[in-house]
Amino acid sequence: MRIGTQLAYAGGFKDAVGLVVEMERIGIDVVAVAEAYSFDAISQLGYLAAKTSRVELLTGVLPIYTRTPALLAMTAAGLDYVSDGRFTLGLGTSGPQVVEGFHGVPFDAPLGRTREVVEICRSVWRRERLNYDGKHYQLPLPAERGTGLGKSLQLINHPVRSRIPISIAALGPKNVELTAEIADGWQPVFFYPERAREVWGDSLKAGAAKRDPALGKLDVIVGASLAIGDDVEDRLAWAKPQLALYIGGMGARGRNFYHNLATRYGFGEVADRIQELYLAGRKTEAIDAVPDELVRNTSLVGPRGLVAERLAAYAEAGVTTLLVGPLTAEPDEALRYVEELRTLLPT
């Protein structure tokens, strides 16, 4: 199991990079940068590429709606170049709250668009002339629909790699099935190891049955809050604001993927209550309504023995990459948590 970290998309990025440099020194494998309605992930990853030398860089994740497929491919090739082949392109649909609310772009056809974006990116990296006639993207744009010549183009530069890895953030059954079919990696959120097979097992199996063997094994990339010690029970509360935001505020009623996931985990009534409070502007009450049980089972918080048990559960559920978020304001304590975690990894 690889160990990495994910940087928050709000505030203190340069300080966080200094901590990543120290984490690289003690042996982490991956660092991910998210993108929502924040600073973009790409400029920050370019900064990280210059400050690090070994860790893999990952977008966690870029919404497929906010850049053209060719621009996503160009950007990935550029980051792979400046990082000497250390970049993985993390993609996802995000949700209507961000895509429509911040970018003003219709949130439509997530499955079809995801498949076509992946196909176009891989074609760009192979430096093929873009002759793509998809349902959602046509490259080049037919002459009768534009003012150009309808002439196909290819990437000018030669990418460091002709196959940059692609991971996809997916939660719904069909999205997860597609991911297991076409992607190098899968990035689920709020991963509950003991309930993962019940929620996603059939989708992963169906996708794997159609998977090209050349893709290799699916890299299951999971995030988890981290605090190790006999006196860290209070840190569970630190993880609740993010859960409340996503379950309660990332989408309207009936269109919130994170609320749906909590419901599939068996927390339907709680999820409804969190959403009701959050959408009513009662955010503190929504945070308080997040149950310790949900936090505890989607994180690594507790004494060494408990964390070791949780790590074993993640491994049993098929997790291959673990992105941890230390629940501390002290850099030295964050490093200690990560160092200790590495000693507890299943062999």
Question: Layout of helices and strands, plus pairs?
Answer:
Layout: E1 2-7, H1 13-26, E2 30-33, H2 41-51, E3 56-59, E4 62-63, H3 69-82, E5 87-92, H4 96-99, H5 110-125, E6 132-133, E7 138-139, E8 166-169, H6 173-182, E9 185-186, H7 193-209, E10 219-228, H8 240-249, H9 257-264, H10 268-279, H11 283-288, H12 292-297, E11 300-302, H13 304-316, E12 321-326, H14 331-344
Parallel strand pairs: 1-2, 1-12, 2-3, 3-5, 4-5, 5-8, 8-9, 9-10, 10-11, 10-12
Antiparallel strand pairs: 6-7
Shape: globular
Predict the CATH topology of the largest domain: TIM Barrel
What structural category characterises the helix and strand content?
alpha/beta
Oligomer: single chain
- Cα(first) to Cα(last) distance is 9 Å
Please list the strands of the largest sheet in the order they lie side by side: 1-2-3-5-8-9-10-12
Order of H and E elements: EHEHEEHEHHEEEHEHEHHHHHEHEH
* CATH architecture identity of the largest domain: Alpha-Beta Barrel
Q: How many structural domains? A: 2
Could you give me the name of the CATH homologous superfamily of the largest domain?
Answer: Luciferase-like domain
Helix content: 40-55%
**How many E-type strands?**
12
Major sheet size, sense and barrel closure? 8 strands, parallel, barrel
> Rg from C-alpha positions?
20 Å
